[in-house]
Amino acid sequence: MQVFKAFFKVQKRYMIPAIMFTLMGVLMLIMNYAMAHRSTSDNGFQSMSLPIYLTDEDQSEVSSLLADYLRRTHKVDEAECSDEMLTERLYYQDLAAAITIPKGFGQAFTDKNTGDRMEIRSVVDEGLAEGHMLNLQLKSFLNSMYAFYHSGMSLTEAAAQAEQTQASDNYVSLVREATEEGTVNERSGESTSRLLFIFIPYVIMCSVFGSLLPAVMSFGESEKKRRENASGFAVWKRSFALAFGSLVFALAFCLIYVVILAFVCGSETFSEMWWLMALNLLIFTFSTVMMMAFLSVIPLKASVLSSIVSTVVSLGFAFLGGLFVPMQYLGEGVKMIGRFLPTYWYATAVEALDKGKGFASVLPYFGIELLFGLACLAIGLALSKASERAG
Amino acid sequence: MAETVVKITNLVKRYKELIALDNFSLEIQKGEVFGLLGPNGSGKTTTINCLLTLLSYDNGEIELFGEKMTSKRNDLKARIGVVPQQVAVFEELTVYDNIDFFCGLYIKDGATRKKYVEDAIEFVGLQEFTKFYPKKLSGGLLRRLNIACGIAHKPELIIFDEPTVAVDPQSRNKILEGIANLNAQGATIIYTTHYMEEVEQLCSRILIMDHGKKVAIGTKDELKGMIKNTESVVVNASDLEPAFIEKIRALNHVYDVSYHDDTLTVKCSGGKHNIVHVVDCFADNDVKYRQIYSILPTLNEVFLEITGKQLRDND
Amino acid sequence: MYFRVFIYRLKKNIHDRELILWSLLFPILLGTFFYATFSSIYGQMGVQTYRVALVNGSEETTQFVKTTLEGIRTEEGAPMFEVVIPEDADEQKLLFEDEVAGIMDIANMGDIQLRIAKDEVAQNVLSQVVGVFRRNAVLTQRAMQDPQAAETITKLMTEEPELLRQINAAGENKDPYVSYMYALLAMICVMASNGGLQVPIDSQANITQQGARVSLTPVNHRMYELVSLGAAALIQIVCTLVGVALIRLVFRANMGCSDAMLILVSILGTLLGCSLGFALGHVSSIRKNTKEAILLLFVTVGGFLSGLMAHQVKLLVEKSFPLLNRINPSAIIHDAFFSLNVFGMGERFYRSLITMVVMTVVLTAIGLCMSGRRSYASI
C-alpha cells in the first residue's frame, strides 16, 4: 500500500503530459468525428458517392439537368472556393473532381453541329481510379443524354433516360459469402465506432508512455531500489503495487475515452459491436501497461526515454499497426511487421467488428494483444532481474 | 591602509514575507581570507549571490574594488572567480575543455589562456585527468575541477561556497592548501563552510551570521574571546571528596565544575594560568591525580554558543 | 572569444548523447516507418487492370463483350480489364476469393447483370462500363423501334461526341501520402526546439549551476546565447538533413520538389524549431519539465494539426481555422513543402518561407530580450 500511495504522489508530477495527451486525444476525436463523412450502408450496392466541386457557369437547362443528376449521385459542393483551395482539396482527396460547366455548353449541346466543340472541364487526379470512374460515369451520362436528345427526346426525357440506363440498382447485385458465423459483408461502409475507436490506442500509448513511464522509472532508480531492497520490503510487493498503480491510471485514461465514445457514437453506442470495441480497447490498455513494464528497464534517463517512446514508438506502432491508415492500404511488408505489434491486432479486431463479426471471431485477436503484453512483461522482469544481479 | 575589496552596506533582501538579509553590512580588505559562517538558511549564499548580482536586492549598496557593483559591470566581474557549492561543469566536455571553456569567457588572448589553463590544471593536480569526462571523476577530483574552472583566469577576488562538501580528507587537504596558496599569491578569498576546523586553519577574519544579520566578526581568537568558556581544565583522578571539589570551584575565574567517571572538568572564564591554579590546589590538598590537561575552546563551540543549538533546517 | 564558445558549444552538443540519440533516432525510425507505410498506397489507388468474369453468354456475345472490354485502355494505354471465362459452375468462388472484381451475366445483352462481392472502386468502374453496354442496348432497341432516328442513333453510338475534357490536377507529386513525409519533416524541424531549449538552460543562472557560472563571466550574455543557439542549430540541422538524406537517398521518395529546395526549407524549419525552444526556455516562470511538456505539445499536437496522423486534418484546419495554420510551426513548415510540390515556387511558397524567417527572428529576439535580465528575484 505504501508504494501504491507513493506512486500516486509521484504521478502527480507527471500530470501535465497526461492532461496534454488526453486533450490531444479529445481533439483527435473531434477532428475524426468531423471527418467521418462517409455514411454507413447496410443495404446492397450503391454507386460510389464522391465529393465533387461543381461550377455551373452556363446556367442553362442542360447544365441544370446535369447538375441535378450530379447532386443526386454525388456529394456536390457549390460553395464559393478559391482556385488555390480547390487545388489543395483535390490534392488531399477531399474532392474527387472539380467540374466546370462552361458558359454556352447548353447551347452547344443542343446544337448537333457544334456540340462536340464545347467541353465540360473535369479536374481530377489522373493517378486515382476514383477520378477515372467519375469521368467515365459523367461521360457516359452526357453521351447517353446527348444521344437520347438527338434521337428525338426532350432534354428532360433524355436526362431521365440517361440516368435510368445508368442506375446501378437495376443491374448490380452485391452477393455475400455465407460462413459458419452467418453472413459476412453485412456492412460495407465504415461505422462511426470504427472511425473513432481505431486511433484511440495511439493516445493511450502516448499517455501511458509520456506520463506513467517516467513515474514508474523514478521507482527504478538504482539508489532508491537499493534502499527499498535494504528495507526488507518484498520486491514482488513493490512490483505489484507499481503495476497496480499504473493500471489504475491507464484504465482511467481508457475510461475517459470510452465515456466520450459512448456520447459520440450515436445509435451504435451500447450495441454489441460497440461493447466489443470497448473491450478491445481495454485489453489493449492492459497490453500497453505491460509493454511499459518492459520499457521501464531500459537504462536511459526517464525524460528522454519517455519522450522517445511516446513519440517514436507510439507513432511507429500506430502507423505500422494500421491505426491511422486503413489496413487495406498497407503493403504486405508493413503488414508482416505489423503482425508483431498489438496495434495491428487491435486494428484487425476493430475492422472485423466493423464488418459485423462477433465475439468468437475477434477472440483470437484479443488473445494476441494480451500475449504481446505478457511477453513484454516477461522480458522486462527477466532484464530487471539480470540488471539487479549485475549490480 | 589596506584596499577594501568588498563593501556591503545595509543590504536588505526579502523573499516575500521572509527577510533573508536584514541591513547586512560587511567590509573585506585586500589579501584577507574571509570566513563566512552561519547555520543553514542564515543568509550566506544569499549574500554571495547578491554580491555577484545574480540576485536582485531590495535595499543597500554593494561595492567591489571601490566601485558600485551592478550586473552590467563586466570589468568588475572579470576580477572575480567563483567556486559554487554544487559542481558547475559541463558533463559533455573533458576536464581540459571545461577549464578552457570557462577561462575563455574571461581571457581573450589564446596564448595567455592556454598558460592559465595549464596553471590551473597543475594547481588543482588534475594533470593526469585532462582528457577525462566529469562522469568518470571521483567526488574529490570533481570538486578540484570545479575549483579550477573558477580560478583559472587568475581572479583577484575568489569566492568559495562550501568547496569541500562530500570530499575525502586527502582531497580536502589538497583544496585547503590550494586556497592558502591562492591567498599567498595575492588573491582575496571569501570562504563559506560548515567545517570549523577549515575556517580555523584558513581564515584571517571570520563573520558569523544568523537570520540575515551579522552576529559576530573578528579573528578566531577574538571570536573565542567573545564566549564565556575560555578554557577547560580536565583532571583524571579517583575518589575526589565533595569538599575538595568545592575548593576547586572557589578558585578564581572558575565558573563551573563537574565530576563524572573519575574525570573532573573545570570550566574557566577569562584569567591566565588556570591549569597552574588547579595543579596547585591538588598539591596543597595532597590529592593525587593521574593526568591533567587544558582544553581551549574551539570555533565550533563559539559557533554553537553564538547561534544556538536549535536545528535550523526544521524551521 | 565567441568562435571558441561556438566550438565548445558544438562539442558539448555532440557529446550530449541523449540529445543526439533523440535527434537522430527520431527521423531515422519514423522516416522508415512512414516510408514503409505510405510508399505503396497511392500506387494501389490508381487505375489498375481489373479482372472480370463473363458468364452465361453465347460464344458470339462473349467474344463481343470480351473484345469490347479488352479494348478499353487506361490513360497510360494499359488494358483496363482482363476477361476471365470460368469453366466450372462455381464462378461465385472467384468472386469471394478476390480472383475477379465482378461477374457479368451476359445471357441477355439488353439486360446485362453484374454480381459483385465488394463495394470498391473496381466494382464502380465495372458498373459504369456495364451501364454503357445497357445504354447502347436501349439505343439499339430505340433505333429498331424508330427507323427514322436509326441513322442518327447509329452515328451517335459509333462516333461519340467529346463532351468532357479531363484535366490533371496540379502537383509535381500528386500522392497525398507524401504529405505525411512533409509532416514528418516538419515534426523533425520542430523537435529541434529541444536543442534550442538547452541554450537558456545552460546559460541562465536561475536554471542551472552552469548557467550561474556563465552569468558571472564578463561576456556579452546575449551574444553568448546567440552563438550557443547557432551551435545548437547547426547540430539540429545536421540531424534534420540526415532525415532528409534518408528520405531522398535511401528511400528515393519523390518529395515533389528539388533537393535544393527541400534542404532549404528543412534548414529554415529547423532554425524555426530551435528559436521556438530558445524563446520558451527563457520564460523563467515555467519549470524545465513544464517547458519540455509544452514543446512536446508543439511537436505532437502541432504535428497532428499539420496532418501527421491523418493528412486531411491540415485541410480541415485550413477550412475551419486558417489562422491556426498560419501560426502552427509544423503547419507552416509543412505548407512550404506542400506549396512547392503543388503550386511550385510561387506566392504561397514565398509566404511560407517568409513566415518561417519572420517567426524565427521574432522568437529569437524574444529569447534574447528576456536573456538580457541577469539578476533574479530568487534562484
What is the strand and helix layout of this fold?
The complex is a heterotrimer of chains A (391), B (315) and C (379).
Chain A: H1 2-12, H2 15-35, E1 51-56, H3 61-73, E2 75-77, H4 83-91, E3 97-101, H5 105-110, E4 120-124, H6 129-150, H7 155-166, E5 172-174, E6 178-179, E7 182-183, H8 192-197, H9 200-219, H10 222-230, H11 235-264, H12 272-295, H13 302-320, H14 332-338, H15 342-354, H16 359-390
Parallel strand pairs in A: 1-2, 1-3
Antiparallel strand pairs in A: 3-4, 6-7
Helix pairs in contact in A: 1-11, 2-9, 2-11, 3-7, 6-7, 9-11, 9-12, 9-13, 11-12, 12-15, 12-16, 15-16
Chain B: E1 4-15, E2 18-29, E3 33-37, H1 44-51, E4 59-64, E5 67-68, H2 74-77, E6 80-83, H3 95-104, H4 110-124, H5 139-151, E7 157-161, H6 169-184, E8 188-192, H7 196-202, E9 205-210, E10 213-218, H8 220-224, E11 231-236, H9 242-249, E12 254-260, E13 263-268, H10 274-284, E14 291-295, H11 299-307
Parallel strand pairs in B: 3-8, 3-9, 6-7, 7-8
Antiparallel strand pairs in B: 1-2, 1-4, 4-5, 9-10, 11-13, 11-14, 12-13
Helix pairs in contact in B: 3-4, 3-5, 4-5, 5-6
Chain C: H1 2-14, H2 17-38, H3 41-45, E1 50-55, H4 59-71, E2 81-84, H5 91-96, E3 102-105, E4 113-116, H6 121-145, H7 147-158, E5 164-168, H8 178-191, H9 193-203, H10 209-215, H11 221-250, H12 259-281, H13 288-305, H14 312-320, H15 322-327, H16 329-342, H17 347-371
Parallel strand pairs in C: 1-2, 1-3
Antiparallel strand pairs in C: 3-4
Helix pairs in contact in C: 1-11, 2-8, 2-11, 6-7, 8-11, 8-12, 8-13, 8-16, 9-10, 9-11, 9-12, 9-13, 11-12, 11-17, 12-16, 12-17, 16-17
Summarize the structure.
The complex is a heterotrimer of chains A (391), B (315) and C (379). With 391 residues, chain A is α/β, with parallel strands linked by helices.
Sum up the structure in keywords:
heterotrimer; A: 391 residues; alpha/beta; 7 strands; elongated; B: 315 residues; Alpha-Beta Plaits; 2 domains; six-stranded mixed beta sheet; four-stranded antiparallel beta sheet
Descriptive notes:
The complex is a heterotrimer of chains A (391), B (315) and C (379). Chain A is of the alpha/beta class and 391 residues long. Chain A has helices spanning 2-12, 15-35, 61-73, 83-91, 105-110, 129-150, 155-166, 192-197, 200-219, 222-230, 235-264, 272-295, 302-320, 332-338, 342-354, 359-390; strands at residues 51-56, 75-77, 97-101, 120-124, 172-174, 178-179, 182-183. Chain B has 315 residues and is of the alpha/beta class. Chain B is 34% helix and 28% strand. Chain B contains 11 helices and 14 strands. In chain B, the strands form 3 sheets. A 6-stranded mixed β-sheet of chain B has the order 6-7-8-3-9-10, sandwiched between helices. In chain B, a hairpin with a 2-residue loop joins strand 9 (205-210) and strand 10. The model of chain B has no long low-confidence stretch (mean pLDDT 88). Chain C has 379 residues and is of the alpha/beta class. Chain C has 2 domains: 2-42 and 175-371, no CATH class; 50-170, 3-Layer(aba) Sandwich (D-Maltodextrin-Binding Protein, domain 2). Chain C contains 17 helices and 5 strands. Chain C has a 4-stranded mixed β-sheet with strand order 2-1-3-4. Chain C is elongated. Chains in contact: A-C, B-C. Chains A and C meet through helix 2, helix 4, strand 4, helix 6 and helix 7 of A and helix 2, helix 3, helix 5, strand 4 and helix 6 of C.
